[in-house]
Amino acid sequence: MVMLAETTDIQDRSIRAARVTQGLALALAVAGLASIGSGATGVSLFDMLDGLSAREALILWDIRLPRLAMGALVGAALAVSGALMQGLFRNPLADPGIVGVGAGAGLGAVLAIVLGGLLPATLGAWIGPQLVPFAAFLGGWAATIALYRLASRGGSVSVATMLLAGIALGALAGAVTGVLVYMADDRQLRDLTFWGMGSLAGASWAKIAASLPLIVPVLALSPLLARGLNALALGEAQARHIGIDTERLKRITILGVAASAGASVAIAGGIGFIGIVVPHLLRLATGPDHRFLLPNAALLGASLLVLADIFARTLLAPAELPIGIVTALVGAPVFLWILLQRRGIGGL
Amino acid sequence: MLEIGDLCVALAGRQVLHSISLTAQQGQITAIVGPNGSGKTTLLRAMTGDAPFHGHARLNGLDVAQAKLWQLATIRAVLAQATQLAFPFTVTEVVRLGLQSSEVDAQTDLPARALAMVGLASYGNRAFQDLSGGEQQRAHLARVLLQVWQPVGPNGPRWLFLDEPVSSLDIGHQLMVMGIARRFADAGGGVVAVMHDLNLTAMFADQMALLHNGRLAAMGSPHQVMTDGTLSTAYGCPVRVNAAPDHGPWLVPQAMPA
Fold first, then answer.
1. In angstroms, rounded to a whole number, what is the distance separating the alpha carbons of residues B217 and A341?
2. Which residues of B touch A237 (CB under 8 A)?
3. Cα–Cα distance measured from residue A154 to residue A131, given in angstroms and rounded to the nearest whole number
4. Within 10 Å of residue B32's Cβ, how many Cβ atoms?
5. C-alpha distances in Å from residue B196, one per residue of A147, A281, B163, B192, B208
6. Which of A168, B117, B145, B197 is 20–30 Å from A3 (CA)?
7. CATH number of the domain at B2-241, please?
8. How distant, in Å, are the alpha carbons of A207, A320, B168, B179 from that of B171?
9. Contact list, B98 vs chain A (CB under 8 Å)
10. HEC states along chain A?
11. Does the distance separating the beta carbons of B87 and A234 come in below 8 Å?
């Protein structure tokens, strides 16, 4: 009887993952409707159901829908970049926001805002609104590569080195960012202030369009990395023995982390801990298999950030709490909890 | 056939292996033995394409240094000395990683059969990290066996490369694992194993390569290689083959009933 129970249990983990996917899709839909129906103007979902007035249409199309879309997009990107980075570093504590990738992306974005005017006009016009997200992607990419080089030796990553190197990289990027802010003129400062709030308050279709080319490919293609990341959990040599080209896997994964984390930093500023909380919750629920983890992380990340955004703008309405504060309030304790658990098993 | 010719390996500027030439045949267990630091694991790592080397290494005619990783993965599996598993996979999930993508079938019972083979039939749903060292080693062996489940494939014999496969096992499981290697070879596959235990080597190996200071000190059947003089020189201590002690309890696996 015991053995029978155990064999059914194993199949449950992949079946359960599929159920979780369905549940999360539903949760995202519900969160989306709740998000559309709440806001500072007090226009509710029911107000919109009986035909849209001109004012309601404006609120829906120019304020609430872009905000919902950007929240979902950024949440999905942050969660997937966290899951990818944890797979790459073989460690559940790796998170782009914590280990300096977000700061590197931020530096790229600030560089683009402050020095973007120096670009030749034709080039500037060509790149246009893509400039800041793309610069953030490059900054995040450089930070991820630097971090991996610093923290890995012979294919194994030291967690302590990773966290400490991440702190140093983040501080360095932050210092250079500070110098740039000091150099910025008034108009740039205004741009920087809006950008750096770590919120979805500045949501617009233009920002969404600028980040889509970086985020959508990562969300769509990351499941292709699942088998390789699963094998990498065994160790780098073991993954190669199974036939995984680990060098290529690492290069692509680093690109994916940088693209998704960089683009989300570029349009929403620094929103922490989604990348660490979401994959951790999913591993508890359906196990660490990246085939389920990556798509489910996109859905749960999107749902959670949309929910956090509803809290952020209704809790102190009409004033608005930066969403980064909400995610940090929930996420930081979870990070500490994981840290304590791992201390128990000597995983550090 | 595994052909190693004039193989040299330097690690961090130090010459670890000096011009090793040997062949290993399918249908046989070839043991690599020698004292600590003699280069056994490095030789295995060169054979599996993990360590850069000069000279040549060909497996079924395939140049190990040039072959694609996926090509090698279809003809040989490697049981390396274990590293820590990064995430809380179950035992079955770890074993399933050995399935090659071409033959992945969600309904297959092969993982369960591989686990049963290494004596872990009821362990499938346990967290891998909760297993003891010896159990983890056997679960990894199940994964490795799954990768080369048929000892002979469409492209010739398949190979098992085992780095100290019995290092953390009790004597019963040592015999079990060596028996698995024996049956794999008897079915037409090739086995190359780094071994510490000379008794088990004498009992199971068809050929043995004795390394000493990065050089091939002797190569041949256990009968040819395991002589007092050869072993005493290589291991740097007086060794007596086939000599019973004068007193005290002692046992060798050869004397155990099959």
1. 49
2. 50, 78, 80, 83
3. 36
4. 30
5. 39, 44, 10, 13, 12
6. B145
7. 3.40.50.300
8. 66, 68, 10, 12
9. 242
10. CHHHHHHHHHHHHHHHHHHHHHHHHHHHHHHHHHHHCCCCCCCCHHHHHCCCCHHHHHHHHHHHHHHHHHHHHHHHHHHHHHHHHHHHHCCCCCCCCCCCHHHHHHHHHHHHHHHHHHCCHHHHHHHHHHHHHHHHHHHHHHHHHHHHHHHEECCEECHHHHHHHHHHHHHHHHHHHHHHHHHCCHHHHHHHHHHHCCCCCCCCHHHHHHHHHHHHHHHHHHHHHHHHHHHHCCCHHHHHHHCCCHHHHHHHHHHHHHHHHHHHHHHHCCCCCHHHHHHHHHHHHHCCCHHHHHHHHHHHHHHHHHHHHHHHHHCCCCCCCCHHHHHHHHHHHHHHHHHHHHHHCCCC
11. no
Nearest to B69 among A156, A240, A287 (CB): A240
CB pairs under 8 A between A and B: 84
For residue B124, give the nearest of A10, A92, A233 by CB distance: A10
CB proximity A248 to B under 8 Å: no
User: Does any CB of chain B come closer than 8 Å to the CB of residue A341?
Assistant: no
What is the mean pLDDT for each group of 10 consecutive residues in chain B (258 residues)? 95 92 96 94 94 94 93 94 86 90 62 94 92 94 94 92 93 95 97 95 96 95 95 92 86 81
Q: Are B83 and A235 a contacting pair at CB < 8 A?
A: yes
Q: Which ipTM did the prediction report?
A: 0.92
d(CA A219, CA A200): 20
Residues B76-120: tens digit of each pLDDT: 999 998 778 889 999 999 999 998 755 555 557 889 999 999 999
* Rounded-to-5 percentages of helix, strand, coil across chain B: 35, 25, 40
Distance CA A250, CA A253 (A): 5
Which of B48, B84, B92 is closest, CB to CB, to A241? B48
Which of B88, B93, B97 is nearest residue A242 as measured by Cβ atoms? Answer: B97
